[in-house]
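Possible regression after last week's pipeline update?

I re-ran a chain I had predicted before the update to compare outputs. Posting the input and the new output here so someone can diff against the archived version. Not blocking, just want to make sure nothing changed silently.
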Amino acid sequence: MKKLKITFNSPAVLCFALVSGAALILNRLTGGAANRLVFSTYRASLLSPLTWIRFFTHALGHSGWQHYIGNMSYLLLLGPMLEEKYGSKKLVGVMAAAAGVTGIANFVLFPHTALCGASGIVFAFILLTSFTGFREGELPVTVILVAVIFIGQQIFEGLFVQNNVSNLSHILGGVVGAAVGYVFNRKRR
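New output (post-update):
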């Protein structure tokens, strides 16, 4: 019988999940101050270096355990496959792009709303995953269905459901994932 060993199979995704969990604990210990200071993005002076940092670090913050578990479930499910296919550096780039796009959009479009959480990254991963079988000149039905189901749901909820969810972050994250999926998987000429 072969000895079973535990492997750190997806360093970028696992580090993100661990740092995000530490941010949640730190936020709890500080009574919400950590999220307000570092792990949320909101309208603040562009002269403050923290404003620029928060465009990205808001993805590490979460409002509570349920929010964290929901996002990490998807990230830990989809992330290792994507990291294996594209590599850690490219996946960190996707995560940074999704966080940056959603952070800046929230800053510009919703001046009175703070944003935290990895939902934009989750939706980027969902759409990026649907591109794994993509070939130049073809559009897989799975890409169409994933876009319609996930993005369509966010548009519907954004228009008709009053909740505390940033549907625009989900949509923009999905757009980042789809764009990156197309770029990563097209044939080089």
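Follow-up from reviewer: compared with the archived run. Residues 65-86 form the longest helix (22 residues). Marking as no regression found.
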